[in-house]
Design brief:
Blueprint (H helix, E strand, L loop, with lengths): L1 H18 L19 E5 L3 E2 L6 E7 L4 E5 L7 E2 L3 E5 L5 E7 L3 E4 L3 E11 L5 E2 L5 E4 L5 E11 L9 E2 L3 E6 L1
Antiparallel strand pairs: 1-6, 2-5, 3-4, 3-12, 6-12, 7-11, 7-14, 8-9, 8-13, 9-10, 9-12
Length: 173
């Protein structure tokens, strides 16, 4: 009797499977972030009209929205912004470090330079450019940093000009 019930159950299951149709579908889903990537644009700075044997400071002024120079001795002193414009993904943490020169080279003289501070123009926060740091890109994914620095003009400057480079290294944290 058990054998007969078991056989009958197999026939019912087999008949039901034959008449039942099954189908399967696959719907792929891909989500891609709108990655901005990480880019750095260096701003080329110039300082003009400096006087021999004078210690100058160049600093970014929130009030002026630009770099200023002090003291003004000849009246011809002028400085442009030295800094970096960094674009990143919104709200991304960006690790930054800098290679800063300690001397600028001229044709006949060397000028010492010291980087004292870095200002983020979006919120006027201050950082030490001599130390590695991590900054968040915020909602717009923008980090604009301006460098403050001091230098002492040599005693003899006839026809001399001095150059150097600041290197920024950035990566996502």
């Amino acid at each position: 009797m058990k054998h007969l019930l078991f056989s009958l159950l197999l026939v019912v299951l087999a008949f039901g499977m034959v008449n039942a149709q099954m189908a399967t579908g696959v719907a792929p889903l891909t989500i891609t972030g709108a990655a901005v990537g990480l880019t750095i644009e260096g701003l080329e700075a110039t300082v003009e009209g400096v006087v021999a044997n004078t210690n100058y400071s160049v600093f970014w002024s929130p009030e002026e929205g630009a770099s200023m120079i002090a003291p003004v001795v000849s009246g011809a002193e002028a400085a442009s912004d030295l800094g970096f414009i960094i674009a990143c993904d919104p709200f991304a943490d960006v690790a930054l470090s800098f290679i800063l020169p300690t001397r600028l080279l001229g044709a006949t003289t060397i000028m010492p330079i010291n980087f004292t501070q870095m200002v983020r123009t979006e919120d006027f926060s201050n950082y030490n450019p001599n130390l590695p740091l991590v900054i968040n890109g915020g909602a717009d994914g923008a980090i604009n940093l301006m460098l403050n620095y001091n230098f002492t003009v040599p005693k003899v400057i006839e026809g001399d000009g001095w150059t150097g480079s600041v290197v920024a290294i950035a990566s996502y944290q």
